[in-house]
Design goal:
Blueprint: H1 12-21, E1 25-26, E2 28-33, E3 39-44, E4 48-51, E5 56-62, H2 68-73, E6 76-81, H3 87-93, E7 106-108, E8 114-116, E9 121-133, E10 136-148, E11 156-158, E12 161-164, E13 167-168
Protein name: Flavin reductase family protein
Organism: Microcella pacifica
GO molecular function: FMN binding; riboflavin reductase (NADPH) activity
Length: about 170
């Protein structure tokens, strides 16, 4: 067993926050349209595959997030896989929600949903479940179609920074 030399408070919240800051996670972007047809999106480090047959993926989000009303009301999303070249895009989609779709980094894609340019891959999905958990939700999506973009180094989120494996991005 390894002992920790970190003297920070180890209450449940603090232990959770400290541990997950040290858990590198891949970075994805989720996009949708709100009820008025306006694009919404956000970065997600909680993306996971759920099953291969049928192809299912999950992501989690806070139900107080600016994008939640759209995710709660829509049937479809596009999940984008981000690579190192997309660091600026990840930062943009994690910043002010009113600025996330200002610029030419996206275009209408399948079903008119926002499709981000130059990502390593994307998948159109139909939301099949929204499971509330406390102030959050787990979203399950059945993948309907998608495409690969140009390969790139992985983009990870670790210790509150976007990085590539082995070095800062």
């Amino acid at each position: 067993m390894t002992e920790t030399t970190d003297t920070a408070d180890s209450t449940g919240f603090d232990a959770f926050a400290q541990a997950f800051r040290r858990h590198a996670a891949g970075v994805a972007a989720i996009t949708a349209l709100d009820a008025s047809g306006r694009p919404v999106g956000f970065t997600a480090t909680s993306l996971a595959s759920l099953a291969a047959a049928p192809p299912l993926a999950t992501f989690n989000m806070a139900r107080v997030a600016s994008s939640w009303p759209a995710i709660e009301q829509t049937d479809h999303v596009i999940i984008h896989m981000l690579g190192a070249r997309n660091k600026g895009l990840a930062q943009k989609l994690a910043a002010d929600h009113d600025e996330r779709f200002v610029g030419d980094h996206w275009a209408p894609g399948p079903l008119g949903l926002p499709l981000l340019h130059d990502v390593t891959g994307w998948m159109l999905g139909r939301i099949v479940a929204r499971v509330p958990v406390e102030a959050n939700a787990m979203i399950a999506v059945q993948i309907l179609e998608g495409a690969l973009g140009e390969p790139d180094e992985a983009l990870l989120y670790h210790e509150r920074e976007y990085r590539t494996p082995g070095q800062p991005a």
